[in-house]
Design goal:
- This protein has 6 helices and 15 strands.
- With 230 residues, the chain is an alpha+beta fold.
- The chain has a single domain, classed as Jelly Rolls, CATH 2.60.120.
- Strands 1-13-10-15-8-5-2 form a 7-stranded antiparallel beta sheet.
- Helix 2 crosses helix 4.
- The radius of gyration is 17 Å and the shape is globular.
- The termini are close together.
Amino acid sequence: MNMSVLTRSVYAPLAFAYDRAGVERELLALVPFFKPILIDESSTLPEKRRRWFMVADDEHYDQVDRHRNGEAVFGRYRSLEGLGLRRGPTGTTVDDSVARRRADDCAGWDWDLRYDAPLTRATVERLPFTRLRGVRLLSVPAGGFLPTHRDAADDSYWEAGHATLSLLVADGGQPMLMQVKDEIKAVSDPAFLFRDSVPHGVAPVTSRRLLLRISGICDQAALAALVQMP
């Protein structure tokens, strides 16, 4: 595959096989450690919620977990929760710092030994990263949803040589919806590349959704060999 595909692909499935059921069992054992990962309230405000597309009705958006100026606002409907499975040299994790966007060399990051996840660790370490940075476990509990939002304003993070790969361990009964130009696409691949600078969200799930989002510097040729394009 021409590696230029990697620089222009918003989303692409990966040909990466792993023990999905085994990783799911391991991650479910970590649920007691999960913390809220709250989206900004701006994505849920009445004047903002329709700027892209909606994944639930207005009542859900009115009552979803979110943060307002850094303060947690808890509603009737859960949104994201989870934790960072790796830590930076000062104890920083990808779930409590904007540093996950910083284009550094990933130095000093290692697995957080407070969490016992050997199968997950071995699975992630088979991905084509030359320098692995953060591994963020993102979960939506049954009945919860992920309002449409963007995580990055542009693609500068990826253009700096970094990659963000994801393992969808359990989809919760719903695909991820993403808006590329004027088209809304539904995707549920077990492993994929995704630049989350495009609007995306998940409708209310019927069971717990589990996603591993993995960042670092990749061997571009090895990554290109995994990418599945139509």
